[in-house]
């Protein structure tokens, strides 16, 4: 199962007409991991958020400054997902398990660990090649090893193909997950690359954990003019969105979770997610670079969604997690 980092806001511009690149299908999807990591580093270098670990996972040491549209888009995405993880960890009181599907070279674990957040288990899942490379990167990074050395019982990096239902069940054992503990599942542009049956199996597996949440980030609205261009651009990169027709709207996103066994769900556009971030920090980020492509910004972020779902057998108040900052 390759890493599935969507190119994300800013990489699907309506004026973009890219020639097809080498690689297709899931190989093309895997190639977006390097681009996503480099884009995050661009935003970090400019001060959008702090991440001392990101440069350890870039395939090149050369800085590559991205356009403001991309930098701000990654700020919206990273801050929105991070808010869910922080608040879930707080609600679980040190008992939280996190499972990041298609994690790629993400640095969430080390960022939050260095800030004092505690997890019972933090699992990252990806394909064998990405997992092997990430292990080598961890070994080479002094910054990562400084945080990692006292967290080896917590952190797990697992190679698995989540398109295989049997592998999902095996994943729980391989990662040392305890279904009785509060568990948060993260999927950033993962489900949208899977066919309907495979994505449903992933959600049903997550919903089998009695106290759990699922946070999902992916493109939507493929049928309007901008959405059609977005699909063509992604397909040109070898990233066919096999699952977008199954959940093309916010309502469909919400239904997919409750149909699979979650008690409740919500879905908003990334435009709404960005507007919900803390005002002071959002204004700080907006002062870093001038963005004159406001129409483009609004279009792109209305074609990406942040959706989430919950089951709350332990009564932790998971229906309120991620809605705003305390």
Give a quick summary of the entry.
The protein is of the alpha/beta class. The chain is built from twelve helices and seven strands.
Can you lay out the helices and strands and say which pair or pack?
Blueprint: H1 25-46, H2 68-92, E1 97-101, H3 108-114, E2 121-126, H4 128-140, H5 142-148, E3 155-159, H6 165-174, E4 183-188, H7 196-207, E5 211-219, H8 225-236, H9 250-259, E6 264-269, H10 270-275, H11 279-286, H12 294-301, E7 304-312
Parallel strand pairs: 1-2, 1-4, 2-3, 4-5
Antiparallel strand pairs: 5-7, 6-7
Helix pairs in contact: 1-2
Explain what the structure shows:
With 326 residues, the protein is α/β, with parallel strands linked by helices. Helices cover 43% and strands 14% of the residues. The chain contains twelve helices and seven strands. It has a seven-stranded mixed sheet with strand order 3-2-1-4-5-7-6, sandwiched between helices. α1 crosses α2 (68-92). It is globular. The relative contact order is 0.17.
What tags apply to this protein structure?
alpha/beta; seven-stranded mixed beta sheet; 43% helix; disordered N terminus; single chain; 326 residues; globular
> Which percent range describes the beta-strand content?
5-15%
Rg, Å, rounded: 18 Å
Give me the side-by-side strand order of the main sheet: 3-2-1-4-5-7-6
Biggest sheet record:
7 strands, mixed
Number of DSSP strand runs: 7
Helix amount, in percent? 40-55%
């Amino acid at each position: 199962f390759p890493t599935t980092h969507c190119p994300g806001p800013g990489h699907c511009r309506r004026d973009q007409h890219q020639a097809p690149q080498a690689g297709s299908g899931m190989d093309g999807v895997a190639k977006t991991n390097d681009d996503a990591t480099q884009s995050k580093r661009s935003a970090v270098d400019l001060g959008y958020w702090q991440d001392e670990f990101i440069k350890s996972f870039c395939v090149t040491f050369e800085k590559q400054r991205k356009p403001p549209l991309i930098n701000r888009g990654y700020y919206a995405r990273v801050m929105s997902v991070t808010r869910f993880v922080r608040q879930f960890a707080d609600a679980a009181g040190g008992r939280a398990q996190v499972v990041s599907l298609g994690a790629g070279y993400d640095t969430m674990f080390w960022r939050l660990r260095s800030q004092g957040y505690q997890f019972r288990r933090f699992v990252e899942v990806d394909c064998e090649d990405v997992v092997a490379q990430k292990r080598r990167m961890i070994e080479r990074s002094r910054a990562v090893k400084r945080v990692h050395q006292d967290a080896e019982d917590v952190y797990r990096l697992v190679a698995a193909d989540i398109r295989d239902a049997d592998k999902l069940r095996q994943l729980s054992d391989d990662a040392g997950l305890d279904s009785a503990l509060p568990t948060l599942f993260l999927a950033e542009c993962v489900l949208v690359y899977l066919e309907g049956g495979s994505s449903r199996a992933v959600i049903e597996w997550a919903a089998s954990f009695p106290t759990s949440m699922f946070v999902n980030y992916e493109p939507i609205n493929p049928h309007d003019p901008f959405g059609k261009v977005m699909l063509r651009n992604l397909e040109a990169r070898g990233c066919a969105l096999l699952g977008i027709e199954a959940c093309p709207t916010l309502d469909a996103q919400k239904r997919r979770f409750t149909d699979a066994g979650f008690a409740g769900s919500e879905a908003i556009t990334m435009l709404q997610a960005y507007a919900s971030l803390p005002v002071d920090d959002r204004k700080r980020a907006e002062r870093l670079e001038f963005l004159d492509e406001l129409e483009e910004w609004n279009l792109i972020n209305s074609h990406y969604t942040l959706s989430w779902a919950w089951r709350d057998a332990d009564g932790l108040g998971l229906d309120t997690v991620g809605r705003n900052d305390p």
